[in-house]
# Entry
Amino acid sequence: MERLEEIGRLIYGSLSGEATSEEKAALDDWLAASARNRELYTRLSDEVYVAHRLGQKDSVSIRKAWSRVRGTSRRRRIARIAGCAASILILITGVASVLIHKNHQLEQQLHAAALLSSLPGTGSVTLVLSDSTEVLLGGERNIEANGTLSVDDREGTLVYQTCGNAKDDESRDRFHTLRVARGAEYHVELSDGTRVHFNSGSSLTYPLTFDGEERRVSLDGEGYFEVARNGKSRFVVECDRFDVEVLGTEFNVSSYRGDSEADVTLVSGRVSVSTPVGEYMLAPDHQIVIDEYDSAIIRKVNAGNIISWTHDQFYFNAERLDNILGELSRWYDVEIEYRAKSDKPVRFTGFIPRYEQLGKALELLKMTGQIFLTVKDNKVVVEEI
Amino acid sequence: MVRLGIENIFGLHRNEESVKALFDGHYADMCLFADRLLHDFAEAEDLVQNVFIKLLASGESLGGKSNPKAYVYRMVYNACLNHIAGKRVEDNRKRRYFEHMLLDDKEDYELGIIEIEVLNRIYDEIEALPAECRKVFRMSYIDGKDVATVARELGISVNTVKTQRLRGRKILQERLKDVFFVAPVLISILFR
# Structure
C-alpha cells in the first residue's frame, strides 16, 4: 500500500509541477512499464474526468450510509449470536424441550436488546405534489423550477422560492403535502419566508404560493413555526380540533390526531387560538392545552424548554405519560404499549436527550420509580406501578 | 425485565468504533474505487456498504490487522470481482482465474489505489481554496451546476460567480499545471 501511495504522490507531483528530477525519473519508469499506467496518468490529467470523479465523491452521504450499515449489521449480528447461543445450549442441555424454551427466551432477550438500542433518524420524508406524485426527500436536488417558483430539497430543508413579482395564480391553487414519517424530522421554508421545523410523524399541507389576506396551511402533528410577517396577511394553521392565527411570530404547535391533548406555545408576538368552544389569545411564554373535550387551559411556561426538541432534547412539563410514550414511539418508530393503573394520568417533568438509544430514555422514566418496563413480542410494555 | 447492558455482554460495541473510524475516513474513496470496476456508482455504494455490514456483523476485530485500510480495500476489491463474476468465488484458484480473465490481473487493484491517492490530493487542493471561491468552484465544476443556478443558490450575482470561478481556476492552474489546462498537455513519455 505504501508503494502505491508513493506512486500516487509522484503522479501528483508531476501534475503540480513540483517533482524533482529524481521523482520525474521514477515516474517515467513507472509510466514506461505498462500501457495501463499511462492510461491512468492521461485520465488524471483530464480536467473533465477529475471533476466527474470528485463529483461522485461529493455526492456520497456518509451519515446515511453508516446508519444503514449499522442497522443491518446489528440485526445480522444479533441473529448470529442467537444462532451461536442456540448451538451452545444444544451441547449443554441435550434436552430438546428445555432447549427450545431457553432458546426462545434468549432470542427474546436479544430482541429486547435490539429494540432498546433503537436509534432515531430512520424514518423517511415524502413530498406529495399537487398531482399526487410522491417524491422522497433527504437529498440535494431541484424538484421543480419554473419562471416564478423554484422548489429545492437541500438535505434536511425543503425550500420554496418565488422569483420576481410575477403573479402566479396557478401555483396559488396548487398544494403540496410534506409527510415526515415516524423516526424523522425535517424543515421547510415556505414561499412567504415562513420556516417550519417538523417533528416526527407530522404532515403539513400548504399552497405553493400565498396571496391575499390569508395564508392558510393545515397541520397534523408537531411543528415549530417561525412565521414571516407579510403586511396584513394573516397566517392560519388549521389543526384537527382548533385553528391558530397569527400575523408574524414564533410558536410551537403539537396536535397529533389520536393524542389525548394538543398544545400551542407562544415564543414571541401574539397568536389567537380558536376552538369550537371559544377563542383564546396567548401571550409569550404561555401555553394553551386543549383536551379531547375541547376544554382549554392556559398556563405559564418556559417556551425555550418547550421548543427544546428543535435542539435535540425532549422536554416534558407535567406531561401525561401516555403522551410522552406516544412521542417516544413516534421518534424511535417503536411500538410502546401503556398499561395505566388508574384513571388519573401520571405526569412527568424533565429533559430527555433525543439522539440517544431508546433504552436511555426509558431508563430515565424508570428512575422515577413509578413505572415498570418489559419487552414483549417486538414492543415495549410500560406499566404503572 | 431486560438488562440494558445485555449488548455489552455480547460485545456488540467491541469493534464498532474502529470500523466507524475507517468508514468515516474512507467510505467515499472506497465507493470511487469500486465504481472504477463496476461502472455504476449506486451499485458501488451498495457493495461497499455490504462489505462494512459483513465486517460489523462478523465482529471480526480490525485491531489485529497490520494495515486495516488495505485489508478492507481488499475486501471491497474481492466483492467487486464476485459481483462481476455474478457469483461468489470462494476458491482462491478460481478467483485468480477470474481476476486474470476479467481484469488483466492485480494491476487493476493497484491502479485503483493509486487513482484514489491522486484524486484525494487534488481534492485537498480544492478544499484549500479561499472559502467563497471554493463554494463557487465546487458547485460549478464538481457538481456541474450552471452559473445562474450557482448564483441563485448562494444568493450572489452572476458576475461574482464568474469572477470567483475564474479565480479558483487560476489558483488551481498555478498548483496543478497539468490538470487545469484548457486542453491537457501530455508529456512526451505517454506516446513513447
Remarks:
- Chain A touches chain B through 67 residues (CB under 8 Å).
- The first strand of chain A starts at residue 125 and ends at 128.
- The two ends of chain A are 61 Å apart (CA to CA).
